[in-house]
Amino acid sequence: MRGSGGHVARKRFGQNFLCDGGIIAGIVDAIAPRAGEPLIEIGPGLAALTQPLVERAGQLTVIELDRDLAARLRQHPQLDVIESDVLKVDVTALAAERGWERVRVCGNLPYNISTPILFHLLDHVDVIRDQHFMLQKEVIDRMLAEPACGDYSRLTVMLQWRYAMEQVLFVPPESFDPPPRVNSAVVRMVPLAEPPQLHLPTYAALVQSAFSQRRKLLRHSLGRWLEEHGFAGSFDLQRRAEEVPVHEYVALARHPSLQPEA
Ligand code: SAM
Known about the structure:
By secondary structure, this protein is an alpha/beta fold. The protein has 10 helices and 9 strands. The radius of gyration is 20 Å and the shape is elongated. About 35% of the residues are buried.
């Protein structure tokens, strides 16, 4: 299944193919696929991960945008190939169609759209068991950041309320062909079993407004948003967005005055 077969890496599809056997084994071990369990790989490419994954899982659903690569992958009967932009795949509907209660998701993601992919999957988190992704190391640093540090960002706050996350592997550029210009790492994301109940669009909007001017005090950004949305509680706006812990954003989004009309 593996081998480039003359395929030339397409930059616009974020194609950096894994070529380090030790790293590939490390990622597959971290995922630890079990036979028969539903598993989706995003961006299988030349099958560096796909091959060892399918050897352990027995079957695998793959989502690949590149038409030529999807055609090659379709030759393998153990692969259920979805030729599509992953951002257009309704994972909840897919799980329902395939009869999966919950599905595991993994992949060496195209770095140019990694944040949109993480946000897209957040909309489908209720059918996801866990996620293992190769990402730019700098993106993982933001995902795992603590308040009051430079990496603490909208991405941190949008993901930490819903997932427990940890870095499981560091991956240097030379593990890829062609090598990317940045360091990479693999993150494990496990949806919290009992997440706080909140209206996600409200949470997303208030977090976006808070981080829209991250150098200024919140009264210039979030303060205005709260006023426009009829917030009738108290919140310390004399801070910067990066100083507010995730649980305070969650509490704000759950405030009765901000709930959508029933
Ligand atoms: N898994 C392979 C590996 O580790 O060598 C390839 C990883 S490469 C970084 C990213 C893969 O995602 C490529 O195969 C690329 O064609 C695919 N891809 C890019 N954009 C995509 C999208 N929007 N939806 C699905 N796949 C995409």
